[in-house]
Specification:
This protein is an alpha+beta fold. It contains 1 helix and 4 strands. It has one domain. Helix content is 24%, strand content 38%. A hairpin with a 2-residue loop joins β1 and β2. The longest helix is centred in the middle third of the chain and has 18 residues.
């Protein structure tokens, strides 16, 4: 059973935490669309996420297995 979770940040502010992969994909895409449409104080460079692996031991902290401070650009 995979217990990987994601946290999404806007600058230094937590927007979403403990999302499973499906929830993360949905929220990440939605945030990108919202930023493109609404603009405001945030750009895509201000949005980041971390991917946490399963907890270490019983009740231990999750371990960061990926930290992405910027949007990945499509290669096409």
């Amino acid at each position: 059973m995979e217990n990987t979770t994601y946290h999404i940040y806007a600058k230094d502010r937590v927007l979403y935490c403990n999302l499973d992969e499906e929830e993360f994909e949905e929220k990440w895409q939605l945030l990108g669309v919202m930023i493109d449409l609404l603009g405001g104080d945030y750009s895509r460079d201000d949005i980041s996420y971390i991917k946490l692996g399963p907890k270490c031991g019983v009740g231990g902290p999750g371990r960061v297995i990926q930290k992405t401070p910027m949007w990945e650009e499509d290669s096409y």
